[in-house]
Amino acid sequence: MAGRPIHLNTAGAGRVPEDVRRTMADVLDREAATGCYETEGHLDGIVNDEMYRRLARVLGAPVGDVAVFDSATRAWCSVIPRLGLGPGDRVWVTPYEYAGNLILLFNLRDRTGCRIEVVPTLPGGDLDLEWMAAHIADDVALVSVTHIPSGCGIVNPVEEIGRLLAPYRCFYAVDACQSVGQIPVDVRRIGCQLLTGAGRKFLRGPRGTAFAYVAPELRAALATDFHDLHVARIDSATGYRVHDGSARSLELAERSTAAMAGFNTALTLFEEGTPFDNKEVFEALRATLEGVPDVDLIAPGTQQSGILSFRHPAVPAGTIVARLAEQHVNAWKIVGHHTPLYMTERGVDTAVRVSTHYYNTVGEIDRFGGALREILREHA
Ligand SMILES: Cc1ncc(COP(=O)(O)O)c(C=O)c1O
C-alpha cells in the first residue's frame, strides 16, 4: 500500500498481514451472506481444530493444554483467581510485571491474605537469580515472570528460572505477551505451568485474540467456578457434567469467527516464515538512539529484544510520538504505571517506545533516526 507508515509499534500491535485481513473479510462476507452460526459450522475444522494445533506447535505444547481468549489479561484472569491462594502463601513477581496482572494479584492479596514479594534485580536490571535460589521454598505458591515487559526490552531468563523452580511446589507463570512471535518460546524448555500471550503483537494476529498454555497439573489444582456450554451440559435438574477437561474448558463459548480464522492465518504465516530475524534492525535502532544527543535509553538487563524505550529531558514523549506520526512513523507513548514496579523506581512517568519486527528494515530505522533528530532540534 502506498504511503504506509514505518511501523515501530509491534509491541502495541503488529502490522496486519494482507492474508489475515483477507481471511477476516471473507468470514464477515460469508456471515452476511449465509449466517454467522452457519459460517462457523463451515469453518469448524479451522477454528476448532487447525488453529489449536498450530498454536500448540508454536508454543511447544500438547494441543489439549492450549486455550484461546480475547485478551491476554482475560487469559490471566481465567486462571490465577482460581488458584485458591491463602494466608500462608507467598507470590513472587518481578519488577517487570504488567500492571493488569498486578491489579488482580493485589486484589487476591487483599481477599486471601497471601503475600506478594518482588524479586530483586542486580544493579544493571537483571533479575537476581541467586536471591531466587536462596529464598525459594514451598510456601511460594506462584511465581510470575514477564518474559519481555511492555515498557522496555529486557529478555528475562525464563528457562533458567524454570530450572531453578522445578523442585519446588510453586506454579510458574510466564507472561509471554511481548515474546511469542518475537523470540523462540517453548513451554517444555521453560518448564512453566502457565504461559499467556496476545495474538495481535509479534504473531501479527487480529485484535481480540490471545491464548494460554495451562499445564494439566495446574488445571487440576484450579477451583473453576464456571464452565461454558461448549464443555459442559446440565444433565439433571440440579447438576451439570463437564465433558471436556482440556484447557479449552477455561474458555467462554462465544467468540468472533473472523478473529479465530484470522488468528489461524497469522499462525500459518508464522509457521511458514522466518520470523525471528530482526537482530540487524534492532542493532541499528539501538545505535541510532545512542547517537541522538540527550536521549535517555530505558534498556535494563544484559539481554535485549526488539523493544526500546527512551526519554528526552526537554521534549515530552507525547510530543515526540505525535510529531513522528506526522512524519509517518508509528511509535508509542508508554506510561510508567503500566509496568509500575520498575518504572516508578526509575522515575519514568512517560517515555517513547519503539519496537522492531522482521518486517522493519535498516532503511526505515535511518528514516526514523532522521525524523527524531529533526523533531528534537525543533523542540529543544
Ligand atoms: C507484558 C504484557 N502483559 C500483558 C499484556 C496485556 O495484554 P492484553 O491487552 O491482550 O490483555 C500486555 C499488553 O500490552 C503486555 O505487554
TrEMBL record:
Record domain Aminotransferase class V: where: 9-368
Q: Which SUPFAM superfamilies match?
A: PLP-dependent transferases
Please give the InterPro entries that the UniProt record associates with this protein.
Answer: Aminotrans_V_dom, PyrdxlP-dep_Trfase, PyrdxlP-dep_Trfase_major, PyrdxlP-dep_Trfase_small
Q: Name one GO molecular function term.
A: transaminase activity
Question: What keywords are annotated for this sequence in UniProt?
Answer: Aminotransferase, Transferase
Judging by the UniProt lineage, the source's domain of life is Bacteria
Which Pfam families does the UniProt record give? Aminotran_5
Name-wise, this protein is Aminotransferase class V
From what organism does this protein derive?
Answer: Streptomyces daqingensis
Gene designation per UniProt: iscS
